[in-house]
Amino acid sequence: MTTYTTNIPAGWYPDPLGLPQLRWWDNHTWTDEISGARAPLVHQLVDVEFADPTEVEFDEEPQRVAASTPTARETTPEPNLASTLRELEAPLAETAVDSASAGDPTVGYRDSDDDSDLTAITSEWAQVAEAIKMAASSAQPTVLAITSPSFPMLVIDVSERAYWWKAELADFPMFPTDISIRTHVREEVIMPTGAGFDLNPLLWMIGTTGYAHAAAPWLTDGARYRLRRWPNMTSLPHDADQLRMTSILSHAPLSAKELSAIAETEQVAANSLLAALSLMNILRVLPGATSDEMGAPAPAPAPRGFFARLRGRHTK
User: Fold this and answer.
1) Do residues 238 and 201 share a domain?
2) Are residues 158 and 187 in the same domain?
3) Distance CA 292, CA 80 (A)
4) Hey, which of 23, 168, 210, 306 would disulfide with 125, CB 3.0 to 4.6 Å?
5) Of the candidates 151, 192, 156, 195, which has an alpha carbon nearest to the alpha carbon of residue 173?
6) Considering the domain boundaries, does residue 234 fall inside one?
7) Pfam families, from UniProt (predicted)?
8) pLDDT tens across 85-132, in order?
């Protein structure tokens, strides 16, 4: 933690890492002691960041307030963040909580080359994809707040097709752990300031990563899919197979099995691509052929009319 020269008194303050907890400021530097007692009255999606504690203004020095028992005619006032900070005791050595056990994003990060437990890893981004699909079908403007020890808070405004994230897509965490998703109505939360980023590149990464080993549950088995418009491939990390399959889908509606056969690739790769393009909402879904239709004989040609027969005689 950085040491500052400041007159800010020692006490509990919002965590400068942006986590929903309090961290102890000892009048000189941030310590490793944290408390989970923070309970904000309003959902706050902004990833809080204190560049310098000297910028924080206080109306009065934090003082401990003695708890009072309300009488029959009194009502207990709703606690706010200031009173919560005052009532917290200073941390003790034997009761201090270690940052790693509380989800410090700098601890326990899984290396991207570690391919162990692929099933669990896949399901982490898969649940984000499913939450996005559900939010897209909601009648109300929906915002998703996604947290994990593996990356900073991710805020997605599904209806506005924008997201806010301090992580770079070039460093997209392939194997995140313990993802937590909270769904909010946009009018009920404090949104991050500034313009967000285009959501499509993020959806591409979520779809191709979350369903790299299984088909997305919203994709109908046997249905055929055709590309409605080309994605901006220059902004999407892709390989030759993904580019070839995308081009094939722009010419004909195909199922995942048909697509993988024509592109001469694995079906899991086709499932992954279809999941990403579906999240980006650039696929047209067409019904697939039923098993009865696939086994039925070809229909007999329609009978030729009089003029068709006459024309056939004179063309021989």
Assistant:
1) no
2) yes
3) 65
4) 210
5) 151
6) yes
7) DUF2510 (PF10708)
8) 445 555 554 444 443 334 443 334 444 444 444 444 456 899 999 999
Number of domains in the chain: 3
Say if residue 157 is in the same domain as residue 240.
no
**27 and 45 within one domain:** yes
Residue 25: pLDDT band (50, 70, 90) is confident
Residue 230: give the domain boundaries. 215-295
- 56 in a domain, yes or no? yes
